[in-house]
Every structure is written in structure tokens, then in C-alpha cells.
Amino acid sequence: MITLTEKDDEDDEIIKVAQLSVEDALKELNTEQAGLTIDEVHTLQQTYGKNVFAKAKQEPLWKKFIANFTSLMAILLWVAGIIAFCANLVQLGIAIWAVNIINGIFSFWQEFQADKATEALANMLPSYTRVVRNGKEEKILAKDLVPGDIVKLEEGDDIPADIRVIAATSAQVDQSSLTGEVNPVHKDAHRIENVEKKNHADLNNMIFSGTNMMKGNVTGAVVKTGMNTDFGKIAELTQNVKQQKSPLEKELDTLTKQISILAISIGIIFFLVATFFVHYPLVKAFVFALGMIVAFIPEGLEPTVTLSLAGAVQRMAKKHALIKRLSSVETLGSTSVICSDKTGTLTKNEMTVKELWTLEKSYHVSGEGYAVRGHIKEGPTHIFAKDNDTLKEVLLGGVFADNARIQKPDKQHPRYQILGDPTEACLEVVARKGKIDVEAEVEKTPRVKELPFDSSRKMMTVIQSSDGTHRFNTYTKGAPNCVVDKCTSYLCDGKIQPITQEIKDKIMRANDGYAKDGLRVLAVAGRNLDQKIMDNLDLATIDTVERDLTFLRVNRYDGSAKSRSL
């Protein structure tokens, strides 16, 4: 947990802005709701630098090189070479030293290449965040954030800096990386009066770098970036931790000590026997003993281990896995389970709606990713929303309950970029494939209230202002079993009909079939709220809104796998 020292307490900007109102906090940070201008961003980047953690001081290359010649086994071989020379075994001494030198150079080269590859890989895995600059929302690299930037965060987003909350909806944050507490922490925009404890984690209007949005959404102003953040202070502490030896290295050190003791002991015994029992001359007995010591030293052990590990590294490299240290391969060989993040690692982090399932019929959706290339099909026939009122209502339900937006490719971003959750972004894509004018529909019936998703309800709901052209003014999306439980009717053949247990079972059978195939499934439902609630949105709560829903559809999602993944 991060707490302040007396030095920090003298001028702690985080405590200061936490005690200010939203308006005063924005003034203190020299920013506004519309965000910074490009000129301001450039000036601040020159002052504060990139929003990254400073790299730990790297060990000089020459030290890494020398380290490969100073392990206990390597030292034993150096000594063995000296002993061989003393015993007049010049060729053996040269051979032992040559093996040691070649082995050290080979090990250094393998690790040097891995370090370079790791550095290149780190530059290929950027983290993005949503900001408001010049009054426009855009997606930028998190490392380009500066103090004063206005940031928008949603459930599941990693928090890229220390941020003062200026607006929040049912926001909860996982701060376990800072505090160790597993329970989510509620966050809001209210100023905090009379801060007694100087513990940043207790500030409910601050969110911190390295933590994660568990629920709701937040708009905030960046206060600290990079190494100035609380997480940056932790990173600075961890950079001084020394690298520990691997289990294999420890075992080789132990074996080296045992071999050394055994070889020297046998050498002494043979020296004594040759001198006192065989009556060799002293010099001849000494040379004989040295020869015995050298004979007991396994000169081929270290290169054998190195070559075996190097072979494993090469085989892993062919499978696109990078090993930084040769000795780590042995540890990996003892691993029975590897826990890997699927999204963005094994897949492209691009979700695609592949099928729209309704109680009336099932529609296949072609195309992959966020490019609007593909169609909605019923069998071989292309279907468009303008020709099918039920399909239009089904597609609009996803559009209105969507918090993500898609940006077309530009000079800086050659691919389609999403602002928000990948699962939500594809709802817009499938609507466009059905030839729905998303911008016009959203502008015609803007959102007036949202009941954000949370893990207990497993759904979210939006309320749209009604213009009389749509059947519903409220749309809910979430886990099929949770949404269906709230439904009392369903849409079929353009008509709303009462739902029965048999119909619910049919929906859940479809859901279970997709789930068994490892596919992601999402249900969408609608409702027409009473005018009384629409006139007074304070009455629009989870209990009053998320009931008596009309089931619309189930989406079957698929994540595009990378062409090369381990």
C-alpha cells in the first residue's frame, strides 16, 4: 500500500486535487472538460516526458559477458585447465579452456539475442486509452498521456495514470495491485473534505495507474503520469531487486562443489598412496595426483547442458515463444499448466458477430473484424433492415445498448480502431452490415440514461428518448440466462407475444449449444417504458426498468485467431 512520507506530504498534488470540487480541480490542473489543445499537449510532453515507467539500470554488456565465464562450473574448468598445464598436459589444458570459452560465448550470444528480441517485442505491444482533446474523443497510446488530459474509462479498462474522477457512473475499481485488498472500491467525483490520513488508496475520487475498472465508467483528469504515479513508486522499488538463480543453476553450483570436493579428495589420496606406498618421486606423485583431479572433472558437462538448453530454446522459437535466459528452459520443462491471456495473445482482440438468433429464424453474418465487409444472410439471400422490421428492431437494440464506437483507418492507424469494449464494437458493425445508418439513428433518439453493467446482474440497460418511430425506448443486453429471466414476452413475426417456459427453454438450448462450442453469447431485449418514468428519470432504476422485457435476439460471437499463436 502506498503512503506518504513527510517529504511527499509537503506538496502532494493528489491530496490537493482530491479536496477540490470538480471545477476547481480542473482549474488546478490547467485543463477543462473539452480537454487539452494539441499545443498544450506538446508543451506538457516536453515538461513531463512519456507516461512510461523508467527502465531499471541495465547491467553493462561486459558484465553480462564476464558472468558467463564466472559460474562455479566455469571456474572449475578454468582451474582444471591450470592443473592440466601444471601436470604437463598442455593439449588437455588448451582443450578444457577452449570448451569453456566457446561455451561462454555461445551462452552470451543466446541471451543477447533474446534481450534484443524482448525489447523489440515490448515496442510492438502498445497500450491504448481514450482521451478528449480539442473537444473530440480519440484513441491514443497510453504512453502519450500528459497531466491535464481528459480520459474516458469503462469496465475492464486498465487505468493508465493517476486520475482525478470528474464524472462517474456506478464506478468500482480493483486496487489490489496497490493495496492487496481484493474487494472493489467505489469511486465518484465528489470532493473529499478534511483528509486526515495521507493514504492515497482511501481517496474515493482518485483512480490510480496499474489498477483496473471493474464496473461502470469514469471520466477523469490526469494528475500524475509515469514514474510520478503511485504505481511508478512501487516500480522504482522493485527495480532494485536482484535476479535470482534458477533451480538448474543452483543444482549445477551444488554439483560443482561436490565434484570439486570429491576430485581434490581423490587427488590427495592418490598423492599419499603414490608417495608413501608406491614410493613415487614427490614431483611425479604430485603430477599423478593432478592428473587424477583433472580426470574427475566433467569438462563436457557444461557444454552438454548449454547445447541441450539451446536446442530447446530454438525449438521454442520455432513455436514463436521467446526464452530470455537459457537456464529458464529447465524451469519451463517442469511446468504442467501455462495460464495465458487469450484476448490479444492467441486472438486478434477483434470480436465478430457470426450469427443472429431469434425465435423466428437464424441469420448468418459474413465477414471478420471491424471492417464493414460482409452481409446478413438468411440462407443464400442477403437481408437488409429496411426490408425487415423485425430485423431492424433486433439490430437497433444492439446499437443503442452499445458504448463502443469504431474509427475508420487513417494515416496513423492503418486498421479499424475501436473506442471501448471489443464485444460491444461488433454490435455496430453487424448493424452497418444490415445497412442501418447508425449515426442517424443515434442522433434521432439520443440516450437519456444508462444502467451500467455489473457482475451481479450480468446485464446493462440504456434508455433512449422516443421519437415514436421505434417499438421500444429501452434496451437491455447481457448474459442470456439473466436477460431471459427478466423477459415476459418476445418479438416474432413483427408481433410481441407472451413468453412461456417452453420458449425460455428453447432460447437457453440455443445458448447452451453455442457455449459448448466455446463461443461467446449475448442476449438483447427491449421494453417500452411508461411515460411516467420517461418524464422523471429518477424513477428509472434497475428494479423499475429491468423487468417485463421483450426478448429480441441472441448474438453468437467469435474471436478471430491470430495466424501465428503458440
UniProtKB/TrEMBL annotation:
| Topological relation to the membrane, as annotated | Multi-pass membrane protein
Segments crossing the lipid bilayer: 65-83, 89-109, 259-280
Show the GO cellular component annotation of the record. Answer: plasma membrane
What is the protein name given in its UniProt record? E1-E2 ATPase
Q: Is Membrane one of the keywords UniProt gives this record?
A: yes
- GO BP terms, alphabetized: proton transmembrane transport
List UniProt keywords, sorted A-Z.
Answer: ATP-binding, Cell membrane, Magnesium, Membrane, Nucleotide-binding, Phosphoprotein, Translocase, Transmembrane, Transmembrane helix
Give the matching InterPro entries: ATPase_P-typ_cation-transptr_N, ATPase_P-typ_cyto_dom_N, ATPase_P-typ_P_site, ATPase_P-typ_TM_dom_sf, ATPase_P-typ_transduc_dom_A_sf, ATPase_P-type_domA, Cation_transp_ATPase_P-type, HAD_sf
Outline the extent of the Cation-transporting P-type ATPase N-terminal domain: 16-89
Output the Pfam families linked to this UniProt entry: Cation_ATPase, Cation_ATPase_N, E1-E2_ATPase
Q: Which family does it belong to?
A: Belongs to the cation transport ATPase (P-type) (TC 3.A.3) family. Type IIA subfamily.
